[in-house]
Specification:
This protein has helices at 2-27, 37-46, 118-123; strands at residues 32-33, 50-51, 57-58, 62-65, 74-76, 81-82, 86-89, 94-96, 101-102, 107-108, 111-112, 129-130, 133-135, 140-141, 146-147, 152-153, 158-159, 164-165, 173-176, 181-185. The protein has 187 residues and is of the alpha/beta class. The protein has a single domain, classed as Hexapeptide repeat proteins (UDP N-Acetylglucosamine Acyltransferase, domain 1).
Amino acid sequence: MPLLRKYIRRALLAILKHLLIFVFKIIGPPRTLHYGQPINAAILRAFGASVGKTGVTIHSPVVIHNAGDGYAHLTIGDGCLFSGTNFLDLTGRITLEKGVSLGPGVIIMTHNRYNNNAFLEERLAHTCGVKDVLIKEGAGIKAGALIVHGITIGKNAVVAGGAVVNRDVPDNCWVAGVPARLMKEIR
């Protein structure tokens, strides 16, 4: 009997996944992913994201901003983990290499504007624009961290919870604070 339940559950999940993708093909990609792990990955793939085939875990919810045309600006490698309540801005490209983990509440921004405030945008023009974000293999971004546009997080780097990363992070380093500063090298 337990084996039969397992097969029925798998079949129902497959039907639900295909039904959701069919509906979203008609109405457009969802802004918030709030389904189970395999369904979230399937929806991302269906709308153009490159998602690894093994070990990708995407807990809900994931809010995706500026993805009206799909998720083609998103690349997720094998073994990546989204812990939920994540916010991804797909104005520019976001690349998460193999084994990257995002803690709950992580925000990744690829653009910056000052709500069309002409005064601020003129005087702070160097901080405006669209720039891609790259998070390299094995990096861990802990709960509530903010990654601003144009940042590269190095291989096996750790960003502490609540940090605001506005500068590139080298490989094998731990950063923390607002703004994030190098705390120590990881050896």
